[in-house]
Amino acid sequence: MVCGVDVRGARPVAQRLRKTTPRYLEKVADSIKATLAAQIIRFLKSPWASSVVVIIKNNGVDIRLCIDYRAVNGLT
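Structure for Reverse transcriptase, as requested:
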């Protein structure tokens, strides 16, 4: 899916990486590898970068990866 967001000439937003608990690093890597293999995501070079946020599911074991778009949404 490709989408466009009109940011009216704003400077690109590049958020820093967020720290992830070492306990979940392997699960994060596995999730990224799986979504790359399924072609849901792909590598891209861009001046725009939003942080990945690791959400722990209710069972306390599984994770969900989310993207923090608040900085970009603030430009629209």
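Residues 19 and 53 are 9 Å apart (CA to CA).
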